[in-house]
Amino acid sequence: MAVNDPIADMLTRIRNANTAKHDTVDVPASRMKLSIAQILLDEGYIKKFDVIEEGSFKTIRITLKYGADKNDKIISGLQRISKPGLRVYANREDLPKVLGGLGIAIISTNQGVVTDKKARELKIGGEVLCFVW
Known about the structure:
Elements: H1 6-19, E1 24-28, H2 31-42, E2 46-54, E3 57-64, E4 78-80, E5 89-90, E6 104-109, E7 112-115, H3 116-122, E8 126-132
Antiparallel strand pairs: 1-3, 2-3, 4-8, 5-8, 6-7, 6-8
């Protein structure tokens, strides 16, 4: 089945697996999704991710992270901001802060996919993909 918004599909799969307290979740791979997974790993929201090749088809297997027991979720929220029907852009002065700096905004810039903090350091804006907290 064709997916109109693959990034929203990835976020929904992670959200659903997190709610169901699964250890891993599989997502069809793309460069954008790999960049998002790398940011989630760097920021400490997931344990790890692996790229699994099944013939010509690649899948990202994301290992979710929990607290001391599985009731303590590290990812408490994921929200898609820029959608195919309504793109949301922010210049460097208007970059969003998620929960007053407690969460991250993932932004697609001309220098790659970065967090809002990194975009402020680089003094660049871009398309606001999603919020994670």
